[in-house]
Specification:
The chain starts with a helix and ends in a 14-residue tail after the last strand. The chain has a single domain, classed as Lipocalin (Beta Barrel), CATH 2.40.128.20. Helix content is 19%, strand content 39%. The chain is globular, with a radius of gyration of 16 Å. It has an 8-stranded antiparallel β-barrel with strand order 1-2-3-4-5-6-7-8. The longest helix is centred in the first third of the chain and has 17 residues. The protein contains 3 helices and 9 strands. The chain is of the alpha+beta class and 183 residues long.
Length: 183
Amino acid sequence: MKTALLSVAMVMMCVTMAHSVKPLKDFNLEKFAGKWYRVGLAYDSPGFIPFRDKVKISMGVITTLPGGNANLTMWEALSIACIPKFYQYNKTSVPGHFIYFSTRHNMVKDVTVVDTNYSEYAVVLKYENFNREYTQAALYSRSPRTKVQILQKFKAFALSRGFPRASILTPPPAENCPASGSG
């Protein structure tokens, strides 16, 4: 019972914090589903900057579930292998705003689709409270390469949210991750 109350309190805290960020008006999950590449990233954790050179473009696939939830499969290129990671995004009362449970951090995290045109790019903001508040912004593209104007728009958004310039990056492509035919 105590664990359930703690979980509910954490979800409510994430939802409250997320209200300072507005999701895209009239967000459409069906149009958002499909293959995306994470081509830009900004993270306000001071511990992130030393690892920025290890980050590669990662690919993900979003599939819709009944009731407005979604599954995300992300492939991450690590030094030893290409590792798939699986997430279930649960809808909230606000379209474009989701929560999910991170097994890595054993906590609920908050994801908001801030902007997308569905066919080229999406800007997503992730919030987590892990000993202190952290925020991550990500730029997704339908292809591993994106237009310079879209990258500039993402960088301007990240700077406007207070991300340090050194924490904003556009990673290089990952080689064969996922392997051909996986995504």
